[in-house]
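Re: [ENG-882] Designed sequences occasionally contain unexpected residues at chain ends

Forwarding the minimal case from QA. Structure tokens:
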């Protein structure tokens, strides 16, 4: 657990932005919007909004162990995850490691089609399927203005071009619902959902299809910076050893000098 002396400047939040980085290399139209990859655009937005309060690195699918070695994960306070058409290529051992870190207190921000990722599905325990269609205007409505992720966010945020995600969204009921979205076809969607798993905090945020410049939009960058702050925990847990208790450890101690209700271990 990190501790800060009184008046000390807090350590920066260590952020890793993970991206498949497939669309940007396969499709010229996507590369024109995100020439350095969505991961670098998202990372740049966090640095722009959060400044010195974050240290941001990036990782992609094609790197060794997808750029998420045990060392990288141990040095990540909050992981942002963007995936779409290569969910099945993410190694199960990496999925297990990411989920383990979340349970121990690493924050996770799942972006757009990351709802279909192995990581998000494993943590939710459901199919996480959505209704969808391409090309629509999205209105992002704040439904919990007191929530830290909603601070400083306009109501609504207008996203001129975006992929429609609509209900039913097959997820467990969120612990906190921050945003819902509406579309011109009448669809609505729970687009900003908070969950807690073990010691970790998870935020799912749907805006961010690869064909549209959503991650350049100032309001979206502001929300992601808020999400990183919210998802960060300074009391991240180390793996806990299994407890092996001997029989009789709870036996009460008798005697005139021992207050009632005190216990001792009878093992040696």
């Amino acid at each position: 657990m990190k501790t800060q002396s009184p008046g000390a400047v807090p350590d920066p939040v260590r952020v890793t932005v993970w991206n498949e980085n497939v669309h940007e290399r396969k499709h010229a139209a996507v590369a024109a919007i995100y020439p350095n990859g969505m991961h670098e655009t998202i990372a740049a937005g966090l640095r722009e909004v959060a400044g010195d309060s974050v240290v941001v690195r990036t990782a992609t699918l094609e790197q060794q162990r997808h750029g998420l070695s045990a060392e990288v994960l141990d040095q990540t306070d909050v992981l942002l995850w963007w995936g779409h058409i290569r969910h099945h290529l993410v190694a199960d051992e990496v999925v297990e490691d990411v989920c383990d870190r979340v349970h121990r207190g690493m924050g996770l921000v799942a972006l757009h089609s990351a709802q279909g990722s192995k990581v998000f599905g494993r943590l939710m325990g459901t199919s996480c399927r959505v209704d969808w269609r391409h090309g629509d205007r999205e209105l992002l409505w704040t439904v919990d203005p007191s929530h830290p992720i909603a601070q400083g966010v306009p109501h609504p945020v207008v996203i001129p071009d975006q992929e429609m995600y609509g209900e039913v969204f097959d997820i467990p009921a969120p612990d906190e619902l921050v945003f819902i979205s509406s579309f011109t076809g009448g669809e609505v969607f729970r687009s900003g959902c908070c969950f807690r798993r073990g010691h970790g905090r998870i935020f799912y945020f749907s805006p961010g299809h690869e064909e549209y410049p959503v991650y350049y939009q100032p309001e979206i960058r502001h929300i992601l910076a808020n999400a990183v702050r919210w998802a960060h925990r300074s009391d991240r847990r180390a793996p806990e050893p299994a407890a092996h208790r001997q029989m009789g450890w709870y036996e009460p101690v008798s005697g005139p000098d021992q207050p009632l209700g005190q216990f001792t271990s009878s093992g040696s």
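QA comment: On inspection the terminal residues look reasonable. The helical segments are 23-26, 28-33, 38-50, 70-74, 92-103, 118-124, 218-231. Proposing we downgrade this to a documentation issue.
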